[in-house]
Amino acid sequence: MNYFSRIIEPQIKDTLNRGKSILLLGARQTGKTTLLNEFIKPHLVYSFIQPEIRQRYEKNPSLLAKEILSKIQLKQLPPEPIIAIDEVQKVPVILDVVQDLIDRKVAKFILTGSSARKLHRGASLNLLPGRVVRMQLEPLVFDEIPNPKPALEDILLYGTLPGIVTQQSQDNKSIDLHSYATSYLEDEIRAEAVVRNMGAFARFLELAASESGNIINFSKLSQEIGVAHTTIVGYYQILEDCLIVERIESLSKTKTRRKLAKAAKYLFFDLGIRRLAAAEGVQLPQKILGQLFEQFVILEFLRRSKMVVNSFNLFFWRDHNGPEVDLVIEKNGKYIPIEIKWTTNPSISDARHLKLFQHEYTSKNAFIVCRTPQSFLVDKNIIALPWEEIDVILAQI
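Now predict its structure.
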């Protein structure tokens, strides 16, 4: 497969040039290994996904330093080489050795991982504060997809994992997604989390995928699955730690006494994985496609927020009386509200909640992201925008 550029590349290059090391997280098959080999090109790579290598350093972590120092002394590595460690979360004790090598300016490191769970657990765990810059690699944003780009409906059904997007056959896409959604997700949960009842978790995973993008009712899910409310909360935390879902909080700041909903939405990191986990086919009604389109646009913003410098925050806004805005971008106290519609020709009625938000927060511009071929003014300071042009919105902040 040919390599194609990722928008995270300038940030990686700048960080390494500043002498910093990097913790690069991302779910499996988002392209971390390809990025390492084709763009970063480290001088030495250790892969802890291989059991024999992992066990070697679990037994004796200090071997890493001895090997690197030996290779530098023998001039097999240049001074302060770039060392990559793949799936570093599988041997978290190695981070103490990495810190020592960074502090002594022996080497710079690219540490990659497909789960943050073990890196977040344990009070004694060394997270290399001040020594590494944390970044996250996501499935492809639309601009990263090589030409010819797939149709929007294909993206909604099959997602944008690099290995899936570049497959020409829809049958092969389905086979690879099915493998990922079954074997990998289950293996990842078994490896990274303590789940006593895998049957209940499997049922939860299907329901969580079906509810992706909705405000979550934990009590309802606990009743449907037959486990405690706290267990459902823990299950979602597992999916977050394993980088399978993204959480978006509701905006709770308000200038009036308007009562706002305090809740969260969870979105699967990739729409193809979501569909397979939800056990859905490819013949989906327009209503479902509209819901998936909303998730797709939100994911496009989420991915940009994680892979660019000077990032921004994302929320949704919901009044207890019913009005809701799909997405709110916030940066330095400035808000941009966004509605996401499957339509090609949004009307003033589609803008009514945006107008309410603008009045509440005195935000200047609002947008309706939709399938219109050209942008147009829906109402004063409310613009209908083609989904392919969402970077126009980011230029406003």
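The first strand starts at residue 21 and ends at 25.
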